[in-house]
Amino acid sequence: MSTSSEGTTGGDAADGGVRGEATASVTRAAPPPKRLVAAWAAWDWGSAAFNAVITTFVFTVYLTSSGFGDPASTSAALGLGTGLAGVCIALLAPVIGQSADRAGRPVRWLGINTAIVVVLSALMFTVRPHPDFLWWGIALLAVGHVFFEFASVNYNGMLHRVSTPATIGRVSGIGWGAGYLGGIALLLILFVGFIQPEVGWFGVTRAEGLNVRVSMLVAAAWFAVFALPVLLTLRDRPAAARGPALGVAGSYRALFRTVAGLAREHPHMLFFLLASAVFRDGLAGVFTFGGVIAQGTFSFTPGQVIVFGIAANVVAGLATILFGVLDDRIGPKSLIIGSLVAMVAAAIGIFALHDRGAGVFWVLGLALCVFVGPAQSASRSLLARLIPAGREGEIFGLYATTGRAVSFLAPLMFSAFIALGSRVDGGASQHWGILGISVVLLVGLVLLLPVRPAAARATHLPPAAV
Predict the structure, then answer these.
(1) Is residue 428 very low, low, confident or very high in pLDDT (cuts 50, 70, 90)?
(2) Which pLDDT does position 405 carry in this prediction?
(3) CA distance 319 to 4
(4) Counting runs of H as helices and runs of E as strands, what totals does the chain give?
(5) By the 8 A CB rule, do 312 and 180 touch?
(6) Looking at residue 6, what DSSP letter applies?
(7) DSSP secondary structure string, 64-132?
C-alpha cells in the first residue's frame, strides 16, 4: 500500500507540480484493493446523516421552529451554540489529530468519535418542541459538531491509505461525492417516510415533533451502519510502531513547533492552509445561503427549495466523482482555480440577472453546485499529497482549525453586502448577498495563486515531540 510520501508528485512549478501520473514511480504504485476504497467512502456516505439531515435540512430547522420560541431568539441561540462548538474545534482539532498520529490509532479514534456522534444523534429523539428543550437540543448539536470534526480529522488522514499518488484525487472525489449522494438518499427516505405525510411509516405523526425525532433515530442508525466498513477493514499500527503519548501541554508545544516549522521550512503549505480556509468558507456559504436566496430573491416555495436542494446535492455529488479523475490529470491546484473562477462568474450572473425569474437560479445556481464539491475534494487531495507519512492527523487537524478560524467570513460578507445593497438600491437587496460570497471566493482564489505545491511538499516536518 502506497502512502503520500512515496514518490514525488511531478510537474513544473507553473502548473502547481502536483500531478499524480507525472513520474514512473507514481504510475507504478499498486493501487489498494477497491474494497478498501469502498469501505472508506462508505463513511462519507453515512456521515451525510449528520451533515445533511441534522445540521442543514432537518434538525436545525426543527430547533428554530415556533415550538421552541420566537424564531429570532432560537436562531440566535443556535448561532451561539454552534459558534462555541467552532471555538472548541479550532482549539482542539490539531491536538486530537496529533495524538491519534502518535498513538498510531486513527481507526480506533475514528470509531470512538463516530460512536459519540451516533449516540448524540439518537439522543436528539428526546428533544420535544417546547422552549424548555431548546438548549438541550442545541447542546446535543454543538457537542455533535465537535466530535464530528474530530472524526473527520481521523477520516481525512486515512486518505493516503486507500489511494496512491496517482489516484488520490479520484479517491477523494469518490468519498466526497458519496457524501453528497448519501445525504440525498437519506433525505428522500425521511421526507417520504416521516417528514412530509400526515401519518408516516409505522404510524408516526407530527404530534410533539415525532416525525423529526424519529428521523434522528434513523439518521443515527444510518451513520452507524455505514461507518462500520472502514472500521472493520482498516487496521491501526502495531503497538511496537506507536509513539509515546504527549500530555495536553506537550501537545500544544508540539503544535506550535509544527506551525513554526511550516513557516520556516514549508511556507507554501502554510499559505495553502490559509488560502483554503478562506475559499472553503465561501464554498460553505454557497450551500448555507443558496436556499435563502432561492426563496427570498427568486420566490421559490419551501417545496421548491427542497427540490432544488436535492438537485443541487445530486449535481454536486456526481460532479465531484467525475472531476476526481481530472484532479489526478491536471493537478488539484488547477482544478481548484478553475472551479473558483467558474463559481465567481456564476455568482455574478445570478446577481446581474436576479430579476429574470426562477429559471436563472435553476441554471446558474446548479452551475455553482457543479464546482463546490470538486473544489472541496481537490483541496483535501492537494493537502493529502503534501503531508509526510505519519503526520496526517496533525496537519488535517490544522486544516480543520484554519477553516473554523475564518468561518465568520461568508456570513459576515453576505450580511454586509445586503446592507450595502439596501443603501444603493433603496429596496429589496437580498440578491446583493451573493456578491459577498463571491468576494470570499475571490479572496481565497487570490491567496491560492502564489502557492506552489511543489515547494510545499514536506518530506519531513519537525518531530512532534516536546
Answers:
(1) low
(2) 65
(3) 25
(4) 17, 0
(5) no
(6) S
(7) TSGGGS-HHHHHHHHHHHHHHHHHHHHHHHHHHHHHHHHHT-HHHHHHHHHHHHHHHHHHGGG--SSGG
pLDDT at 90: 73
Mean pLDDT of 412-439: 79
pLDDT digits (tens, 9 = 90+) for 221-231: 999 999 999 99
Q: Are 317 and 368 in contact (CB under 8 A)?
A: no
pLDDT of 2 reads 33
The overall average pLDDT reported for the chain is 79
- In the chain, % of residues over pLDDT 70: 77
- 50, 262, 361 from 297: Cα distances, Å: 28, 44, 9
User: How far is CA 441 from its chain centroid?
Assistant: 16
Query: In this structure, how many other beta carbons lie within 10 angstroms of the beta carbon of residue 48?
Result: 27
Assigned C-alpha cell, 266? 514549508
Rounded-to-integer distance, Cα 210 and Cα 195, Å: 9
* DSSP assignments along 324-344, one per residue: HHHHHHH-HHHHHHHHHHHHH
Q: Which one has a higher pLDDT value, 38 or 256? A: 38
Of 360, 340, 362, 338, the C-alpha closest to 350 is 360
Nine cell digits for residue 57 = 435540512
Nearest Cα to Cα of residue 450 among 345, 333, 335, 371: 333
Rounded CA separation 72/126 (Å): 23
Q: Averaged over 67-82, what is the pLDDT?
A: 76
| The three grid cell numbers given for residue 25, joined into one nine-digit string | 514511480
Report the Cα–Cα distance between both ends of the chain, in Å, rounded.
31
